[in-house]
Design a protein that fits this description.
alpha+beta; 10 strands; hydroxymethylglutaryl-CoA reductase (NADH) activity; four-stranded antiparallel β-sheet; globular; hydroxymethylglutaryl-CoA reductase (NADPH) activity; oxidoreductase; 4 domains; HMG_CoA_Rdtase_cat_sf; HMG_CoA_Rdtase_NAD(P)-bd_sf; 3-hydroxy-3-methylglutaryl-coenzyme A Reductase, Chain A, domain 2
Length: about 400
Amino acid sequence: MAKKYYELTPNERLAFLNLNEHVKAELQANQSDNNAQIVENYMSDFRVPMGLLKDIIIDTHLVNVPMAIEEPSVIAAANNGAKLLNSGGGVAVKLPERTAMIGQILFYGVNFHTLHQFVTTHQEEIFDIAKRAKPSIYKRGGGLVTVNTRQISDDEMSVDFKIDTKDAMGANIVNTILEAEVSLFSEFDKHILGAILTNYAMAQLVTVIGNVTFEAIGGRDIAEKIVALNRFSKNDSYRAVTENKGLFNGIGAVVLATGNDWRAVEASGHAYASQDGHYRSLTHWTIVDEQLHGELTLPISVGTVGGVITAMNQAKNVLDIIHTKSADELRGIILAVGLAQNLAALKAIADGGIQRGHMRMQYRALAVQVGALPQEVPILVSKLTSLPQVDAARATEILMEMRR
């Protein structure tokens, strides 16, 4: 009996695709026995460049932060933003007293008062079930923190479980507890839509704060332009989307490098940017005490142990570089990088345009694309930078001239 596709080995899956030998050999060269156990229908690894944000001051400590991203100029900009923030003493982090994930049991067609009364009178049983469902998290000091009933619409409501998952990403912990809790609500069986965690991490709101001297930013005029640009993005969704995308260039690169779920972090962030019904930028820049003052608050759900993080050596290596001691500490580091990224982008726009540094990094990628050797890349980039217009054909032509 023929094996199903998911039962094939990685090489058998590649053979099924009828690839040319060169492509197949490259894919085979990037295979990993470890990663083959992580995703379904595994064929090969897809590598993303990883660079370093060198020395950002966070809560008085110098931190080195690896960033995994394919977009040119992002890591350079993050380093630039970090230097600016360091000039004002670095970034300070504010965390809630206790961070937690939120899980939901979803109900429809039931009276809110009836459901709310049930939850209120069964609090002790709800907490007992949670402890029996996941005793290991209680041994680490975590577990169910609160349970509340929330009305969504006239006939839709959610019972929200706030669960401290400590340093784990926590999805499996939350879902295991929720599935155990469903049995208690048997009298509402016909009204239960499902039980699942939410990625809207409102119990994991973190704030970072940083200051930049006028001298470091290029003068008071530049600082005031940055404030005006930021204010514009509070009123214009077109500008807000672009500003937040740049913010998540930094945040997502660190989340990815640490083996966390960058899609969940970004989805939660965009929801938070729209919380008042209008999509706005997430950072806040003002002039305070004759300095440029920046703040960023974001719901951010990440972990430092368990799941894919523990399974992927790349993620463990990155966490070793950062020297982070907890998931809460990692949250602050990630947001600090986001604030630095946003600052660098706003300064570039306010101080003559973002293209100057950005295009130089793009030309490096173009040089590699047209076949430049490592030692040829800086020479070719220098030549391309002096031209008014550049494309792949022109880059190839200059490369051929260099080799004559």
